[in-house]
Amino acid sequence: MVVRTFPDLVGRPYAGGTSINNSHGASWVRGRLLGQGGFGSVFLGKSRKPNEDHNQLPALMAVKSADMDQAHTLKHEKQVLSTLKNSPFVVKCYGDEVTESGDGKVIYNILLEYCSGCSLSDHIKESKTGLPESEIKCYTRDILRGLQFVHGHWLVHCDIKPSNILLASNSSSRSGLVAKISDFGLCKYENEEAVETRGTRRYMAPEVIEDNILERPADIWAVGCVVLEMMSGKVVWGVSTVDDDLLMRIAYSPELPEFPSNVSETGRDFLEKCLVKCADYRWSAEALLGHPFLLQPSS
Question: Binning pLDDT at 50, 70 and 90, where does residue 217 land?
Answer without folding.
Answer: very high
